[in-house]
Design a protein that fits this description.
By secondary structure, the chain is an alpha/beta fold. 33% of the residues lie in helices and 24% in strands. The chain has 3 domains: 183 residues, FAD/NAD(P)-binding domain (3-Layer(bba) Sandwich); 105 residues, FAD/NAD(P)-binding domain (3-Layer(bba) Sandwich); 108 residues, FAD/NAD-linked reductase, C-terminal dimerisation domain (Enolase-like, domain 1). The strands form 6 sheets. Strands 1, 2, 3, 4, 5, 6 and 18 form a 7-stranded mixed β-sheet that branches.
């Protein structure tokens, strides 16, 4: 038997799309297999890290068990990347229609957003994608799938649903969850998180978003474009403080144009809910204070690791409030047990979990020595324009002792960006002074998340900025901005001495 969870507890509303999602991700009639013999690998957690580990190991011939107590696919499929990008796509469509007049396209009746239809599309697409992560699919790929709460019973066994699974190696991939804030009345107000916001069927007229990090900023802009009056509170000073501040300022101005009211250095003193309205009392370090009324509150301030109920203390696996402790090979303090994904890694991205899982497979099963620190990890915040980054920021590079040279190409000088009407942003690349070695890059553009991959590939394969400049790019594309930086680097090699030598050669050859 596995943990009893009704479909209403897993997803809402329970329409045909969410029933399809549940049928794939948490099938009600699922019968856990009978364990036979020892597994090469037992994985706890069916999110990205767990799924990639399980299917990758099984594909190489390992005997693998996968345990998931909630929904297969984890945060990414159910409450993260997939639904958020569906919502963002709808909001971007609304913004594009509103801006169509700039292209000479008239929309006489204006923009009308059907929010229930937006959310129905989100649920439909999520349900379609869920087949890729379904329990049935992973069973067909040779993985023994167990639905239920897994717990370490001994250093070589895991208990789940009344069954005992023996293992040679195990992987903890239980992920993380949205954190709550100790604000009086916030919980009682029914505050939303990324785990509940995608269950909305009515658009909040007045929405408070708490936290100006990636989640908060993405959702603030999306809901504003869909028609909510959005206020964004940040307790610290600044906006997208982790990012290059030139880049963050461009996005802040974009949110301002979308009529998002932003306030930083705000302490929320309490929330009172009455007659469907939340009254929020706050004080700003900049002097302003007062109270505002909102129809809904969305908290987007970070993640907490899912370490509870696993029996980690019983098997000598160290952890703290940041998650399970691992070394650079992703091995925990118990040499038989590894971890991957949000449960143990600071970069909490689906693509990071994917590649961490590949490291675990090699190290746990094949005596590999792959290191997490060797990965080149890009990321993107999916605002409009997007911010994407890879490698070091300027201050980080200087702190590490590098002498840095910075090259910047503004999108307003790139023909395709001009033609697209997407001139906000830039490409900024840092190289080690005296070489073309790329140390890091930030891109602000409408499709920065796509553009950053070219620089990630170059960095991973040791291709410098000169090599990018020597590579033909199709014209006109926005990626030409990256190629132009290669040209800019090459021009720095034309010193006065080199130029004088070339002039003498050319004069002699006339």
């Amino acid at each position: 038997m596995f943990d009893k969870m009704t479909t209403d507890e897993l997803v809402s509303p329970l329409d045909e799309h969410n029933r399809k999602l549940v049928a794939n991700a948490h099938p009600s009639g699922w019968i856990n297999p009978e364990p036979t013999g020892r597994y090469n690998l037992v994985v706890i957690g069916g999110g990205t890290a767990g799924l990639v580990t399980a299917v990758g190991a099984a594909g190489l011939g390992a005997k693998v068990a996968l345990i998931e107590k909630h929904l297969m696919g984890g945060d990414c499929l159910n409450v993260g990347c997939v639904p958020s990008k569906a919502l963002i796509r709808a909001s971007r469509a609304a913004a594009q229609v509103r801006g169509a007049d700039a292209c000479g396209v008239k929309v006489p009746d204006g923009v009308s957003v059907d929010f229930p239809a937006v959310m129905e599309r989100l649920r439909r697409l999520r349900a379609e994608i869920s087949a890729n992560d379904s329990a049935a699919r992973y069973k067909s790929l040779g993985v023994d799938v167990f639905i239920g709460q897994g717990r370490f019973a001994r250093s070589d066994t895991i208990a789940v649903g009344g069954k005992t699974l023996r293992f040679a190696k195990a992987v903890i991939a239980t992920g993380a969850r949205a954190v709550t804030l100790p604000i009086p009345g916030l919980k009682e107000s029914g505050a939303l998180t990324n785990e509940t916001v995608f269950s909305l069927t009515e658009l909040p007229k007045r929405l408070l978003v708490i936290g100006a990090g990636p989640i908060g900023v993405e959702m603030a802009q999306a809901f504003a474009r869909l028609g909510s009056r959005v206020t964004l509170f940040e307790a610290m000073h600044g906006f997208l403080t982790r990012e290059d501040q030139d880049a963050a300022e461009i996005v802040r101005k974009a949110l301002d144009r979308d009529k998002v009211e932003f306030m930083c250095c705000v302490d929320i003193e309490g929330v009172e809910r009455s007659s469907g309205v939340s009254k929020v009392r706050f004080k700003s370090k900049h002097g302003s204070s007062g109270a505002q009324e909102f129809d809904a509150i969305l908290v987007g301030v970070g993640r907490a690791p899912n370490v509870e109920g696993l029996g980690l203390d019983d098997v000598g696996v160290a952890y703290d409030r940041t998650g399970v402790k691992v070394d650079d090979h992703l091995r925990t303090t118990n040499p038989k047990i590894y971890a991957a994904g949000d449960i143990c890694l600071a970069p909490k991205f689906t693509h990071t979990a994917d590649f961490a899982a590949r490291i675990v497979i090699q190290n746990a099963l094949f005596f590999g020595r792959k290191r997490f620190s060797a990965l080149t990890i890009p990321w993107c915040t999916y605002t409009d324009p997007e911010i994407a980054h890879v490698g070091l920021y300027g201050k980080e590079a200087l702190d590490k002792g590098f002498k840095v040279r910075t090259f910047v190409q503004k999108m307003e000088e790139v023909d395709r960006a001009i033609l697209d009407g997407e001139t906000e942003g830039f490409v900024k690349v840092l190289v080690e002074h005296g070489t073309d070695k790329i140390l890091g890059a930030t891109i602000v553009a409408s499709h920065a998340g796509d553009l950053i991959s070219e620089i990630s590939v170059a960095m991973h394969n040791g291709v410098g900025l000169a090599g990018i400049g020597a590579t033909i790019h199709p014209y006109p594309t926005q990626a030409e901005a990256i190629r132009r930086l290669g040209d800019a680097y090459n021009r720095t090699r034309l010193t006065s001495f080199v130029k004088s030598v070339l002039e003498k050669i050319l004069k002699w050859s006339r």
